[in-house]
Amino acid sequence: MPSLAPPLFELGHAEEFASSGRTLATAFSPRDESLAVYATNNVDPQSSQRTYPDVQPVYFASPQAAPVAERRTFISDTSVVFELVQNLSMVSQQENSNAFRVDDRPNVIRKLAYDYVNHTKEVWVYVTREIAKGQPRQYTPDHYRILYSCFSLFTLLYAPGTEAERIPVGEDLMEWLNTHYVEPSSEEGIQLSAQDEPWQNEAFWPYITRATVRGLSKATAFFLDILASKHPSPHLQRLSKSLAPLLTGHPRIQQFTAERDFAIASRRWKEKTKTLRLELDRIPEEARDDGFENWWDRISDIVGILEGRGEVIKRICEEVGADWKEVTAVWGVYVDGRLRRAELPDVVTAILDDMPSDPTDLEDAIQSSLLLGKPIQALSYAAQFDVWLAAHMADLMQALGLIENETTDSDIPLRDYYVLQYAEYMRLDPSCWRHTVSYLCTCGTVGHEMADQVLMRVALRLQTPKDSQTANEESARIRAGILDGVLKEVNATCFEHQREAVRRMVCRIAAQTFLREKNYGLAISYCASAEDWPGMGRIVDRVLDEYIINGPASFAHTVANIAPTLQSLRSQNGNNLNGVFIHRLRFAVRFAEFHQRRLNGELEDAALDVMDIFQEEIVPTSWWAVVLCDSLDLLRNNERFYFASEDAYLLMRKVEEIALQTTHGSGSDYLAILARTIKNGDEKLALQRVQMVRLALTRYYARCGVIDVGGKMSVFSK
């Protein structure tokens, strides 16, 4: 099966695969359209002879390819506009908001919609240029061209802005048509203009007829001027002289400040057209042909377009290869110059009855649905073509109130349904997790729950890398206690979308990673950030295990980077930290400091550490015996006294309590850890060690009494 990588079996070896007692099985994902393909037994595994390894690969497949290259950039660029739309919706929902006037909202939405349009245009131009250079791209230029044309039409019809919504739509439709479906081509016009007698070219009359249909009056007038000066027929010369200014003088709505003035100018222009028709009809039959073409029929068609004759326009559009879109645009320019957006569906319905759209062409289906005033149907077709188009049109439709109360069969809002689909598509590319979360968090409870799953599965890349200088620098900053890299971005994203529970979970994951590296300072820091106090307790246990397993020197070195973390936590949280766990952490740090001072020969300070941790009662009872035994060298020192008599008395009380509890059967609570530090040790040997401390303390206390050592001073020369 060569489509699987690595292949399950080589081409031509299917029989060997079948004879091994296996077959292929699939499992569809309940979340999306992806599936898992894997090999499984096709007979009783006990009766078959195994000829394959125990571990079998599982292949994951999806009907959609993960976004790469220009597609990934396109997703990133348009996500910025999407966030602006969400901000607009959020502001508009706030009571008594003065951020913008209600009348400004349609204009703001129009601007944002055109931002989408510009992005689709840019990526179309870019991919076209790259393909021309021989650089393959994930999507064809035609794919982005369709996105560009469809989003442009949607914006024109449904997000025209406050002013444009009230004016006729014909000129806007014609401009859209000429932008996205260029006809006739500039090359044709250049070739014809280079000829002395262009009317003898078969393409001449179709060219100027199509130019007239498209409202390209200057191009038509140029060739009419040629006919007026060079054509042998005096009738055609005279008609051309009259027709050229009529074409260029066609009233356009943009030329007028008031629609009333536009209507008056249009009536006057129509009167001139009728006059030209009368003049045309007076031409004798025998003078209507120049021996090459019946020019009269051609001029009559052009005048019929200007007159707004619907049947003539439909016939001409069919002859020149135009479709229903062109007829619709022409209708709003020549047939009904005051056509409103709300009236378009009736006009388009009548046109489609004579010139139906192509149901197999998604571009045609999307555009006809938009023009018919069926936005929900348009979204359905858009999702089949590219879920990006459906998601962003649905989002704007929601903002415009077009699908506000529409839901799917699962009671999911229609807008959320398409945005969720798009987010699932982005999940195919793990690097798009930020955008995926941003989109999901706009889709209610369902979206937030899905976003939580995405955030918890982001690869934090906390392990120390081996092959990337940038990654090494990022890792070094993180280990220096600086929030950086993916971890910083995930943390910021959780704050942005108020996913506190997920942020804490991510911090727990980070803490576990640092714990495995024995970076206890960072592990504790992230546990505290997650408010995972039991987790912090487990880390402290691991820290203390360093003492039991590797001894005081290694323990002191390991804990050296925890002290700053402890100070930071105490300064940030004061007394709000969980008492049990902070006491254990404080003990680990202070106990490590005690051993570090002993190793450095700072015995006076070491003795102070012992007394402080006992007086502050931060020593767990299970560690009393360990601390006391580690203080033996201070008690046995014959040159100096490191403890005052009252300090020695306190230590003696601890020893007595250990002995008393041991006789009552609770020795494991006091001696278990000390026993673990003794090779082949048990509770009996541990108790013997404590008895040695007891003896040393008795002697120390007696020496203090002989030379009258007392008070609060803890260091005396003999």
Could you give a quick summary of the protein structure above?
This protein is mainly α and 718 residues long. It is built from 33 helices and five strands. It has helices at 14-19, 69-93, 105-132, 141-158, 170-180, 186-193, 204-213, 217-230, 234-248, 259-281, 295-307, 310-319, 324-335, 344-354, 362-371, 375-385, 387-400, 414-426, 433-440, 444-456, 469-479, 485-496, 500-516, 520-529, 533-550, 552-559, 563-573, 579-600, 603-615, 624-630, 632-635, 645-676, 683-706; strands at residues 22-28, 35-41, 58-61, 640-641, 716-717.
List the main descriptive attributes of the protein structure presented here.
about 725 residues, mainly alpha, 3-stranded antiparallel sheet, two-stranded antiparallel sheet, 5 strands, about 65% helix, elongated, disordered C terminus
Largest beta sheet: strand ordering: 1-2-3
- The count of DSSP E runs of length 2 or more, i.e. the number of strands, is 5
Category by helix and strand content: mainly alpha
Helicity level, as a percent range? 55-70%
Radius of gyration: 42 Å
Task: Kindly give the count of domains.
Answer: 5
Taken as a percent bin, the fraction of beta residues is under 5%
Enumerate how many helices there are, as a single number: 33
Report the average pLDDT across residues: 87
Biggest β-sheet: count, sense, barrel?
3 strands, antiparallel
